[in-house]
Queue: 4 jobs
Job 1
Amino acid sequence: MAAKKSRLGFVIAGLLLGILVSSMDNTIVATAMGTIVSELGGLDKFVWVTSAYMVTEIAGMPIFGKLSDMYGRKRFFLFGLIVFLIGSTLCGTAQSIVQLSIYRAIQGIGSGALIPIAFTIMFDVVPADQRGKIGGLFGAVFGLSSIFGPLLGAYLTDYISWHWIFYVNVPLGLIALALVACFYRETIRHAKQKIDWLGVMTLVPAIVCLMFALELGGHQFSWDSDVIIGLLAAFAILFLVFLAVESRAEEPIVSYQMFRKRLFAISNLVAFFSGASFIAATVYLPIFVQGVMGGTAAHSGMVLLPMMLSSVVSSQLGAVLSSKLGYRRVMVAFSLIFLSGILLLGTLSSGTSRAVVTLYMVVTGLGVGASFSVLGMAAIHHFDATQRGSANSTLSFLRTLGMTLGITVFGVIQRNLFGGRLEDALAGSGQSPVNAEMLSDPHILLSPATCASIPTPVLEQVTAALSDSIAHTFLWALIPAGLAFVFALLMGSERLEAAGRTRAAGDPSAGPLTAKDI
């Protein structure tokens, strides 16, 4: 029995490492981007270093979730991990921003299998009376990695090389690969299902068209240009076709049947909107600290530490409370805290003290942390082992889609706000158009050497414009945060079961597995 418990512990450790490296790479490039762009060039393409990863990750999630229900979790978790490690190694060798974006896309394909399948395996092997504690641990690692990514990326960039923000995945990933390959013995029989390839071929291009339109609109092309209108039209047509295909598909990648369960539907909506809002804090807080407050990349990462720790605390607390208070009460309380945190971030200015910024981060972290654990448990509450992969991958899909659209939409908002305020600030400064154009991107303020070359009066104006644009971007992020709170109010009265059901003989879907089944 002790050996079986030990084996379960090794499996959980391997899954946690897989979640760590996968979710960390959503944000690890944030604080290193200034250095990467200065070395590789391609300032106009830097956004795709992050977006390429997230688009391919989104595309893979529903496919791998469905495949794991059909043929087993283990083989696709290991496949995803191997592809992810290959992509990480390639990213470290990139010689241009285009190469890096392509290699990040390979990483994203692997990541599309890791997070949803890791959570699903956890629900397969952990008894219901332990899911609160273990689910909180999984959620804590997911939340921790989302904020630990910029911290680790900052230190590796400052003290070693930006290449190591990708190479660091290799040893961690190899350990996870060894643990899951050696100690996870899958026993669940999986249902044979068809993959909805037509759905995949309509949804993924639709997302890509939308992201290109949002990123290029108002920047490289005007919003009323033929290119942007064509991209938006292509998105609308493809998305409508996708909805029609899903209504007729025998086994749709996004099942309408699942969404008839109110708890599942609402959990996905809360994840979508909270992810969209939280990514704004994750991306723009390091830029604020480094560009406005004058810190180094490492310092911007350190300031995120309180946010990281508070999200870990609320992830554990939310999971434990779910069995006592129910999913709705827990999510309503923490969504309100998260909404308050985003509102506080919207009051930031160039004169805000470091202590106040830290306090606002703690509030934001406390608010968002519970969603990482509670929503995952709520999403699979009504489904057995033959549907958990699809249910979990749908939640991960929509959360990541929200984060992806959040990066793009808030990137457009912040860039336009910054450009407008910068133009007003430089109107009477005597700066030439060339200098004004040089200062039109916030990432240029992340380099102390560049800041030192800018005249102090002009630098003060640019810094004030950057601070104002980021604060107003956070105010725009109140919209998805508020929607997450509203939808949390609509969650049902279900709560996490305190004890597992008895499994019928020969029916692995009747209840959770225990350490004996591994």
Job 2
Amino acid sequence: MSAIALTAAPARRVDNKWLVTLSITFGTLMGAIDSSIVNVALPHMRGSVGASIEQITWVSTAYIIANVLVMPLTGFLGRQFGQKRMYMACLVIFLVGSALCGTARTLPALVVFRVIQGLGAGALQPTEQAILRQTFPPQEQGMAMALFAMAVMVGPAVGPSLGGWITDNYSWPWIFYINLPIGVVGLFMVFRFVHEPDDIREENRKRAAEQRKHMDWAGIVLLCIGLAAMQYFLEEGGRHDWFDSDLMIMCAFVAAVALIAFVIRELTAPVPVVNLALFRDRTFLSGTLIGAVMFAMLIGSMFLLPLFMQELMGYTATQSGLMLMPRTLVMMLTVPIVGRLYNRVHPAWFISFGVICFAIGAYLLSHLTLAASSHDILIPMLVTGVGFACLFVPLTTAALTHIPRHSMSDATGLNSLVRQTGGSIGIAIFAVLLTRYAAEARASIGAHLTALRPEVMTQVAALKRALMARGLDAFSAERQALRVLAGRVARQAGVISFEKAFLVQGIAFLAVLPLLFFLKLDRKKSAATKVAVHLE
């Protein structure tokens, strides 16, 4: 590129990277929070809309399915309408959906409005990731992804606590209404401070014209059918006993056929709607897969711990959410440090340290008992918080290192999709393991509770005397004593099942270490390429 060409090129608007970051983080943070904020409010919603326990779960499932459908199409939509316009349009759709959710008084209306909200939120996260990568210079990419990580990881952690507080002090519609003033501020800031780079706009124009000539309708249809069926299978499989249900078998079959056909279509289409060729970059592939495992463990941990605290330790939903806050706070403190050190330390070292921290934290959690104190839970929270911070920033940064600027939105959409799918798979796997381990533990403990064991009969006799002292007759007291003993068995079986699940988490996470071999990147080559593209 000649000096004359550089001089003749029109001056490009220099964006304030911090204002850009703040502007686009509003939407991403709200979208991440809304994926979990409704969970603690579902009982209140159920009473308002007259739904059963099974029916009300559609409020969460509909949002997640709609969210996932849009993620891989982020690059396609950004090319057709422009990244900034698409982000603003999706934020408006999200806010409209939020307002409608607050007004819903029937289950069908609430589910439809959650779909609208999810469709708007789906593109916010990957678009922010792409814009940050395009805004920050190569030497500050670690810090850019640290800022992105704070929104993505903090959202699901804060959601339950915030939702519980709002529901307890106001009413459930306010968990949706609270998005409106924040979203309007974010919308104004995006309009005022975010500007699409000239090189990205020009390249998107060319590629959009090519895509309109060869519109991949088949790919879009197959993608939507496959992802919707897969996500429904993952979200609802546990309630329908997985493959014991004809509905789940059908969903799994449809998802497998549609997604296989989609992959074949995208690899053979003249202009594919989703650029699967990006996975040929082994750094992107390995970083994305490790990120999916990481998110599976993070979401799985957020599923297991509150369940343990609420069902076995007697915590309320709000209390269990507050117990998770120390991990969120330590992540918020550690993430910026990791971002600043990213260019000085190879990502593999950060990731290895993060994996080890998580494994240690999971090992500590596997020793929790019914007598555990808040301090016993706090230490593992802090250790795993440091681990996740050391994982997320290097993974999201390194995975996209070799991706060209004009393909960044395609890559971030795929990265977000795989990460979200990993979270859903994590919950599904640990829900199944928890049920299986509890059944095995009950059977094992129950085999030793026989009338032939003196200590068992002594405990039954003591319970019987205590109940008779409260006014029960001998027959009723004995039956009630046996029920109390069965309840104790169930609680101890529950503790054992959680211990095993936490231990499996730690061991499974150690299995990702071999993937670090593929996480190779040439920092100098990547930085030079991005600077050159930025100047052209």
Job 3
Amino acid sequence: MGYTPEELDQLKAWPFVEAKKLLKRINNKTPDKGYVLFQTGYGPSGLPHIGTFGEVARTTMVRRAFQEISDIPTKLVCFSDDLDGFRKVPLNVPNRDRLQEDLGLPLTKVTDPFGECKSFAHYNNQKLRSFLDSFDFEYEFISATQYYQDGKFDEMLLLALERYDQLMEIMLPSLGGIAKGRDKSYSPFLPVSPVSGKVLQVPVLDRNISKGTILYQEPDGEMIELPVTGGNVKMQWKPDWAMRWAQLEVDYEMYGKDLIPSAELARKLCRVFGKPPPLEMFYELFLDENGRKISKSSGGEGISMENWIDYSSPDSLGLFMFQKPKTAKRLTFDAVPRAVDDLQKFVASYPSQGLIEQLNNPAWHVYAGNPPKVGSDISYSMIINLVGAAGTVDEEVIWGLIKKHANVANPSDNPELYRNLKGAINYFNERVAPTRSLRTPNEKERIALEELRNKLLDWTGGNSGEEYQSMVYSIGKNHQFDPLRSWFATLYETLFGTSQGPRFGSFIALFGARKTADLISQRLKDTSFASRNS
């Protein structure tokens, strides 16, 4: 659809900022190839992790923003560098000893340690695609092995052979150059040995541009002349990245902050291939709970895609990817409740917003411009606390507690709420229950809790969350909790074993005044016993 310059200027969400840059880069004209090409890259030397998924999710968000402000056709490709040599056995796969035997082979020739696919690369590629498909991404998957072997890179490979010296002039300084003897050992071409089948990192001894071949020496000393076309060689990954940009005429690509130096080289190399580099955006890396980068080889200590989807819908993961892409974020388990609750708030605000506000709302980007209607005000965090308070993980029991408040009878009436219920129960079982510790209240806190219990037992006011919240607030104020948030922290820590939670008044409205009073009585009894025996 068309937007005025003033409206475009008001689109501040980062995918629109990127989309506007891209539109300017192509001069608002359709490229000769007929579409604007977005690319994401994947190295299948290890299991795909959540950061890999995030790159596709974020790139898709920019693509959707571009489609909103332009009628120019677009295309997204996910390129798997699966002809790369297998250099290191990942720590997070079975049958590691068997994989040691395949070191050096192209990833599409490495044994699948899981015993399910033709190769390790095929397994990892399939794993990646299954997650991308679960989000209904529109993309074309490209295998480097297939592209090399089908001759789709032949034109650029022959050009690289012709402009070999120019490529070396760019690469050598980044590798230590002549001073470290890299002019004798480095080559942008990696022969795929016809003897061993391995991807060899050996120098090129001679080139024959007219024949399109290179001469190299096998480890056993045999001299072999090999065509650079037809999948007989694989380019080193930085020249390979640039060659891919040039051959596919990529218009936009994202990459992690750690690849900024490599991208600077790829830009220069791409121009050697006679093509302009794409518009690029770098994003910060995900960190695990110990502040370490999450990688596909080690897996890190962060939450996996499987974990996240077991606890919540893919939509909340999409929001996590949307938020602050240039800020390093800890990808820990407590990110799930925050993301689900934040997304619920963004969706709730969407209908009352004007068009520009909606386009800047994260919900627009998570749901591809079509957010669902809000079906309930019951937050994910609320359900987690409800499970803990109810003392059961039985889905039917928990559903029975919330369905009246949510004005639904069956799960089919609000599938999103029921999905959150199931995910919250899983989250409670695996992440909360094993480490939950109910704090013993001090004397001041105990007196305040007793007053709250008594007020609830004698409650004759309304049953809205706001009315309960006002009453809880006044008790904290009367007992001189300063700051007042320490009173609410007391409630969470002594009743739920967590440091924070949803609005307590809303919890009472959902759980019920009498049940909440009974919960307080039980916790006071339990912690009193614990205190006397500590």
Job 4
Amino acid sequence: MTADDLDGQYDYIIVGAGTAGCVLANRLTEDPKCRVLLLEAGGSDRYHWVRIPVGYLYCMGNPRTDWMMKTQPEPGLNGRALSYPRGKVLGGCSSINGMIYMRGQAADYDHWRQLGNVGWAWDDVLPFFLHSEDHHAGRTDLHGSGGAWKVAPQRLQWQILREVQEAARELGIEPRADFNDGNNEGSGFFEVNQKNGQRWNTARGFLRPALKLGNLRLLTHAETEHLILDGRRATGVRFRHDDQSRTAHAARGVILAAGAIHSPKLLELSGIGDPDRLSELGIEPRHALPEVGENLQDHLQIRTVFGVKNARTLNTMANSLAGKARMGLEYALTRGGPLSMAPSQFGMFTRSDPSLATPDLEYHVQPLSTDKLGDPLHPYPAITVSVCNLRPESRGTSHAVSADMKIHPEIRPNYLSAERDRLVALKTVRQARRIMAARALSRFEPTELLPGPGVEDDAAILDAIGTIATTIFHPVGTCRMGEDAGAVVDPRLRVNGIDGLRIVDASIMPRIVSGNTASPVVMIAEKAARMIAEDRR
């Protein structure tokens, strides 16, 4: 059987060939008898700016690879509406993200278990992280080897970042060799999902091998309109492809892997959600699940910027034709240099309050600076010290606003709406200032540019944060997992009250993890594939 022979009825239909969908397609097709249809609204990832790591700058905000969504105006951000990049391409956000390999903390998953999610504690999920991983240092008790998810060290170093590490040490933030052993406290250089200086997304790692097996059919530019329901069972999907509306049926199940923004939208377009909300949109309510689209959580990064002297940064290298030519030549010859950079090279995990049991802050320190992401680099040497609250208490929403699938959902993260989040935000700015004022950095004469040296009292700092803070692109939680009556999916990721339907993506997280979210989504998909195989027996 070849993929061209696959038509009509499938065992499984996966909606979304993003970070999770590519993993699922790989694992489900390991059974040669399993016929799988994978639908992706975007196009191919065979695009040079996907492969070249620095190309994230040209993929976010690019309609070829990004859904081009925005939040609603955010009261906590002085009324600003933020761009909200989401991958519209094979590999999804793993094709446009920062490539940082990060699992989060063991306590994150133990907390999921304490919320009633049996099978999701750290000891339960670690084997699935290991199963995917191909770590550059080889197999250990905490790292895998030979998996599809490549983990590599970065291929360049910046002296200014090593000095920031020494400055942090003066404040008690000690160097750490491994951020992924369950306790990420400390400072170090991020490992990345790359191979030979190129981005390694889930399309390369998981999807390409699966397409060779013959029991997977992939359709790109195929946008799902809604689920097909037979009473309380999902039996297939309706989707548009080649300007035609088409139907596909699944004998064993439909799996939504469309992400934390599009999975709740598809549920609502299918009549699954808050009945009153659906009725207002002219959508017939088919099944009441009022928390669909609720519980949105995201990491808000506060970008402090410091001018420096006597230091090499990307700003001055990239602001001349000769510098750009040297960088291009270095990458062409060695697959190294600034074009191989992840957005952030150096990170720190620490506490906003010493009474906390685990770190609640993550720093991303970059040898560059801009007014905002996507803007030209400043013409003078500077670094960015971004910091985010890893466990925000603010909760937002993402909901369909029309029965028309082409209309983007309404995204309201409600950043800084919780009092504790505002208090933590104040502490982060002051902590960043203390780090940059440490003795180790004195020879670089750091000068605060953002928020600015005159911004001192609480009100002024919060106002400045409202102007400079932005998303770090980690939305989760909109179809949260749980055993309680309000949960959208159960711990086996089955949509409550609907047979034959699962959700497998970041939307199922009951609480956001304490770190970057791509690799936890890979883990979720690995675990989901195992559960699906168990249920098939």
